[in-house]
């Protein structure tokens, strides 16, 4: 006679182990997310004339300009350098995030990034 609503062959034990592993992975992901949020990534443009620092939360926390790049006659160049440095710093943050996710998922491609 078949059991009602159950699995044969010891599946409930395996399901419990799977749930524990999922919970452990979720805790690790939350810890890694908190750690990523505190990290900072700095990138430069224009030979170091512009530096931008962002956090793992993708927030700009610092912009450093050298005096020689501040030319009232060429504001566009300064704007371009700021954009370039910011995009590079954000790329670094995203790359670090992807590395953390790869470690967590074992390279299975299960995650597209941390939700921030």
Automatic annotation (TrEMBL):
InterPro entries: YbaB-like_sf, YbaB/EbfC. The keyword Magnesium does not apply. Keywords: Coiled coil, Cytoplasm, DNA-binding. Residues 15-42, 75-103 form a coiled coil. It comes from the Bacteria. It holds the Pfam family YbaB_DNA_bd. It is found in: Cytoplasm, Nucleoid. Binds to DNA and alters its conformation. May be involved in regulation of gene expression, nucleoid organization and DNA protection. Belongs to the YbaB/EbfC family. PANTHER family: NUCLEOID-ASSOCIATED PROTEIN YBAB. Homodimer. This is Nucleoid-associated protein V6984_01415.
């Amino acid at each position: 006679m078949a059991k009602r609503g159950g699995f044969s062959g010891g599946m409930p034990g395996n399901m419990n182990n799977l749930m524990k592993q999922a919970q452990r992975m979720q805790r690790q992901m939350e810890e890694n997310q908190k750690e990523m949020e505190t990290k900072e990534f700095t990138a430069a443009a224009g030979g170091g004339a512009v530096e931008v620092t962002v956090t793992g939360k993708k927030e700009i926390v610092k912009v450093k300009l050298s005096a020689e790049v501040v030319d009232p006659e060429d504001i566009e160049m300064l704007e371009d350098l700021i954009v370039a440095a910011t995009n590079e710093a954000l790329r670094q943050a995203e790359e670090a995030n992807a590395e953390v996710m790869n470690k967590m998922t074992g390279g299975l491609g299960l995650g597209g990034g941390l939700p921030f």
